[in-house]
Amino acid sequence: MKPILVSLMTLTALLVPSVAQTHPRLFFSPAEVPALRTKITQSPWLEMYNTLVADAESGQYRDYAGKRTPANPSGGIDPFGESVNGFRCAFLYVLTGDDAWAQKSRWYVERRLEDVTVDSGSFVGHGWGLTNVKGLSLYVHGKNVSFAYDWCYDAPSWQTPTSGTNSTPFRQFVSQRMLVQADVIATNGGTQQNTDAASNWQCNRGSSASLLYLAMDESFSATNYTNMYNKAE
């Protein structure tokens, strides 16, 4: 949690109009990308990079057979796996500049944004921007999509229309949907949450909403942001 908190503190100090729509801005800046790309040609980063590529290509996350991936679109749905692979592929786009990774990231992010499942009995929903979804699901998916958006912002495949019936550029659509998720987390927090101020639930809630607000390129409530930042702090 400390690295995320440091990132939030840094971004809070830097997020002024001149920084708006500059991406990436979570964890590293555009100026730092060339050094990251150089590192992955050397040990031990090369080995880490190869592992990341293998995991992203396989969709590997937890022990879940038959996952839904771009190569296996009819496979079983592992919402957390889709969320994680969305930002894995996004980070690989940063490291390589290869839009094929951004396309895969977009595919995973689309699956998360279109989810409308809600909690029902023992079933745990993962719907985007909905209050009747387990809090931790909201927080994890919000955080992961904020990374994917920040890292794929300048990717060609994220600048094309959202769909055949929606001409909004995909990155703009994602930013708008991030605002919905952030506001739900900030004003409601989802189901089953531990509301104790000292709970790690509340820290995760504050961190996720803050990252969403800081990554997006929409106007947002300063009150909501401050409330969430204070929970993360």
Notes on the protein architecture:
The chain is mainly α. It has nine helices and two strands. It has a two-stranded antiparallel sheet. Helix 4 runs parallel beside helix 6 and helix 8 crosses helix 9. About 5% of the residues have low confidence.
Topology readout:
Elements: H1 2-14, H2 33-39, H3 45-58, H4 79-96, H5 99-113, H6 135-152, E1 161-163, E2 166-169, H7 170-187, H8 200-215, H9 222-232
Antiparallel strand pairs: 1-2
The low-confidence parts are 9-19
Structural class: mainly alpha
Strand order of the largest sheet: 1-2
Mean pLDDT: 90
Q: Globular, elongated, flat, extended or rod-shaped: what is the shape?
A: globular
Count of extended strands = 2
Q: Characterize the biggest β-sheet.
A: 2 strands, antiparallel
As a percent range, the share of helical residues equals 55-70%
Q: What is the CA-atom radius of gyration, in angstroms?
A: 17 Å
Question: Terminal Cα separation, in Å?
Answer: 10 Å
The tally of helices reads 9
Strand content: under 5%
Order of helices and strands: HHHHHHEEHHH
